[in-house]
Design goal:
Length: 264
Amino acid sequence: MTTRNMAINNIHNDKFLDAAANGLVEVVNESLLTKLCDIDCQSNKGDTALIMAATNGHIHVVDTLLAHKCSLDVQNNEGESALMMAAEKGNKDILDVLLAHNCNMDLQCKLGLTALMMAAEKGQKDVVDALLAHNCNPDVQGVAGETALMRAALKGHNDVVKTLLIHNCNFDLQCQFGLTAMMVAAQEGHEDVVKTLIAHNCNMDVQNKGGLTALMLAANYGHKVIVDTLIAHNCKLDLQSNRGETALMFAANNGHRDIVVSRY
């Protein structure tokens, strides 16, 4: 292909991508019918027309692209696919269409995140339900070892946490720092998530790489209700961190007198 032809081809591809990103289905369809563009061409960021349409919620563009046999699982420069973007943005209608076309549900981006993990962090319960209904793997771990459950627990999305637990995810998996879903929920003060995890018999006394437990983290950050809840369910009070600190010491050292007085 000559330099001039390459330039013309790039112009057509750019027009096609811009149309897909902006939901201009007629322009997209015309570009495909006249074969002036590459259906799987990518922007400078690696986004395809399908990724752009899925991100921006343009279902009619997605339908058109799929009818013309675009590739489903192309990943952009960050490793994100159309399914991941639809999941993160909560575009369930598009997600349903992509799942019906048998896209790869467990692809991971450069950070190791899957569509399920992205949806869980954003609290997109309907998307999480759909992915689990299609038997995606709930226990995939990211580069840092985090799971969908951990990300939902971190953000306090209790409805998503419940859904993941109902689908038998492994609630005691640890990230590279040794944190579990229980620990991150306790640290962030998400009382309802802690109670949900306890109801599913998660291990309250797991220790992270520094030897800290959920109780120590809750005590350290002054989350009294969580401290009370963990103690009421018979967590171990006198475990020590790698530096010899107990939950009582964390509470006292950080000025959480209400925890020290009421429970100890």
